[in-house]
Amino acid sequence: MPRSKATSTADRQPSRSPTLRFVGGKGGVGKTTCAAAFGLLAARAGRSTLIVSTDPAPSLGDALEQPLTHRPRPVRGVARLDAVEVNAATALAAWLQRRRGLLEEIALRGTWLDADDVARLMRLSLPGIDEVAGLLQIAELADTGRYDHIVVDTAPTGHLLRMLGTPAVLEGLALVFDRMQAKHRIMVEALRGRWTPDAADALLHEIDGQARRLETLLRDRARTEFAWVTLPERMAVEETRDGLRALNEQNIAVDRLIINRMTPAPRQPCGWCDGRRSLEREAFLALERLVTGAVTVATLPAAGKEPRGMAALRRLGRHLTKPAARPGGRSRRVRRFTAVMTRAAGATDAAAVVPGGTELLLFGGKGGVGKTTCAAAAGIGAAISSPDLRVLLLSADPAHSVGDVLEAPVSDEPRRIRGGPPNLLVRELDAAKAFAGLRDRLADGFDELIVRAGGAAADQQAMRDLLDLAPPGVDELAAIIDVTETLDVKAGVGCDLIVIDTAPTGHALRLLEMPALMHDWVKAIMAILLKYQPAVGLGRLGATLLRLSQGLGRLRTLLQDASRTRFAVVTRAAALPRAETVRLLARLRKASIPASLVIVNAVGAGTCPWCRAERGRQQKEVLALSSELIRRRGEKPSLLIAPGVVPPPSGCADLHTFLGEWRPQRLTRR
Amino acid sequence: MFILDSMLIGGLRFVFDKIAAVVDTELNDESHLDEQLLAAGMRLELGEMSQAEFDSLEADLLVRRRQVRESRQGADPAALSPSDYKITGIDATFEGDEHS
């Protein structure tokens, strides 16, 4: 690897507080590419710039074509530009390490736990705290004073909103520990007559201050700008509306709306390109209506090749700065058009996707590859081909879109879809609601034991505050345990097959890895409870914890059972999704979760020269992916090719047709 | 001396009553049996108890639970609760040279 001659901006003298540019949007819309292009623009304009990726499945290094680490390093060939991929686990460990001793001290002072109990709890991993750790590290990098500008490539929408909620989480943490410390203060005051603040108080003050600084920084419109990236698609309009509303509710203003991958005008008549351009024009107009005149709307053209490397990013940067011209033409109805695929052989059916005996079918992959569409098609296909099978199609993505794909209202209450098979129920998981039930049961259990131990109302409140700090993802997990329990129910609300549409890769992985982490927590609390059983008994808390532990155990077993669980990775025929697919397969193997299917979605294009070139590129990518799958040790997943369709498949009948268009692809070497 | 003795005996009787009640609760109180079963379930989850040990304990606790239910319905006179009996005297033997 050539050595870089660029000087790290981290080596230069501290300057003032930097400005921040957040780049957000649904998964797979091109946030990373836009963030990289923004970073390059700022550096070329003479500002010391840092690009930070907080995505748990980062691809910033792929876009910049160089490996990155969790420490800022110079971007090769560009002066004044550093990049870093935040590693949540490392960031959190570093933050906690400096404060662990004092936090343990406060917990000892303010609870009935002994040193062993406190140490045991503090040793456990904190699941799903990536967003908090990510923002803390950004704040620390901003505080170094070495950068004029920081560009943040954020995680997909649902999780971005949680990251922006970090100040509240920190304030909550300071509050819980302050309640514990308050008991110690009162005792010391009673014995000594007065209280002198000590190191523990200073730490609580520091955490509270950090929360307030972050709060101010995020909402300071003079220093913090927000770009929203989206695609010119009907479904993206809804997603953008929801995202902008959620940001607005958090008092965060978007100054730039970037509509990525607009199809260029074809040089000769092409049904595919014409159909796409017509739909994109509709979407552009709808997106433009969502924002006020103060927001700059920019468009980026669909690039034949994925924009990787400095030259491509520079070209994109030029588009980012200028307001877009409204696409011309007239609105017209677009008839269904299935893309022409270069190589397509054989036919597939629901049994290839959902073989008999499957109880859990998870769809995962990079954002924007069409997980929801594929999951919905598979659920419908399974229900139609096996009328006796009770199928539940479940969306576990915090940014739900299964209702949009099915063109039907969907809620947390499982319901049938008009025009759909009668044995198919659809549900969008309301994780917050499911977790609220568990949280209340836990809080009541703790209350009962605190009363038995002679504790005060303040102790009960501290425990409730602590439960409110449950990390993101625990809510989804609690909900999924509830849902998978229905697999064992043979009648009534039970079901035989659950098809889950998960959140984009990083967060889906976290969801799959979380049962083990949460199980450790539940077991640690059970062990502590058993230790104090002679004094306070087990109460309702014991029963709740035992049920939770058993549910987690059953879920972990189910997830690792290849005869009952299948994981379908959805991807696209392009380099970035392929790289992410290979990483996802490796992580699944590490978590002992069987990945049995890879679906390359939206393959093919039209017949114009641009489309023909595009089909050639896709074919190379499918072959490259096929080679990578062959190289894998152990059982190889089957590979399916799903065609691109204009307009994207939606509604039960169309999705069923779409499933019938999937084709098996034999694994071959390049 | 009489006052002292009767206070002593009364006190002892109180203590033994309490012990009998606690022993009875340990053996026969339904909620206590449930808690023992819950603790066993937790120990099984934590790997502190084998499935065979759990099964045997569970069977034992379920039998005792059934006996408690039956005794509450008057079907089993052998099972006693503190309200069913009264301590009428205590037979105490002292050894050593206290009175010598």
Oligomer: heterodimer
Query: Which protein chains are joined by the largest interface, and how many residues does each one contribute?
Result: A-B, 15 and 8 residues
Mean pLDDT of chain B: 73
Strand order in space, largest sheet of chain A: 3-4-2-5-1-6-7-8
How far apart are the termini of chain B? 18 Å
The helix fraction of chain B, in percent, is: 55-70%
The rough form of chain B would be described as elongated
User: First CA to last CA of chain A: what distance?
Assistant: 26 Å
Largest sheet of chain B: none
- How many whole angstroms does the radius of gyration of chain B measure? 20 Å
Question: Can you lay out the helices and strands and say which pair or pack?
Answer:
The complex is a heterodimer of chains A (670) and B (100).
Chain A: E1 19-24, H1 31-44, E2 49-53, H2 60-64, E3 73-74, E4 81-85, H3 88-97, H4 100-110, H5 115-123, H6 130-143, E5 149-153, H7 157-164, H8 166-192, H9 199-219, E6 224-230, H10 234-249, E7 256-262, H11 271-290, E8 296-301, H12 310-321, E9 337-338, H13 350-353, E10 360-364, H14 371-385, E11 391-395, H15 402-406, E12 424-428, H16 431-452, H17 457-468, H18 474-485, E13 497-501, H19 505-531, H20 533-536, H21 539-559, E14 565-572, H22 575-590, E15 595-603, H23 609-631, E16 638-643, E17 645-646, H24 652-660, E18 663-665
Parallel strand pairs in A: 1-5, 1-6, 2-4, 2-5, 6-7, 7-8, 10-13, 10-14, 11-12, 11-13, 14-15, 15-16
Antiparallel strand pairs in A: 3-4, 9-17, 16-18
Helix pairs in contact in A: 1-12, 3-6, 4-5, 4-8, 6-7, 6-8, 8-9, 8-17, 10-11, 14-24, 16-17, 16-18, 16-21, 18-21, 19-21
Chain B: H1 2-28, H2 30-45, H3 51-72
